[in-house]
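Team,

Forwarding the record for the chain on the shared tracking sheet. I've put the sequence and predicted structure together so nobody has to dig through attachments.
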Amino acid sequence: MTMWVFGYGSLLWNPGFDVAESVRGTLPGWARSFCMRSIHHRGSEAAPGLVLALDAAADAACDGVALRVAPGTEDATLGYLRERELISSAYLERMLQVALTDGRRVTAVTYVIDPDHVQYCGGLPLEEQAQIIAHAHGGRGPNSEYLYNTAQHLTELGVADPDLDWLSRRVAAIRA
């Protein structure tokens, strides 16, 4: 069976698994935002960073990429993704419909935020997000690096995200 994964944050630039096909797509009903405190990868328990998650929003749609997993690697890929994404159970694994830019519709493994989890922090003002991202550092490096890589890859894909663009400029100014 063909397996797809929807990427909207670090999976855009660091999928970590064999990708057979990558196609831009849109996931309706979800908004990309820095609504998850990161206590492992981009922050610590003492000084949490922020990472992107999908927050349910009826009037929203998130543009990203659908990644078709290389045939024969589906089980290993799912195991890898669960180890990576479900490290603290703040994400929930869902099978969601993604509309691809080429007209296809696929069901993709998608990681969304659990709004009842202690790491959920939806609705933080952008300035507060910028201050956190500018200073946080975790096991996978500076929080700012995560922001810059994601914003750069969205730009390369032709995906507009004004909040990430503003955050990139503001975090760079804070760190200067």
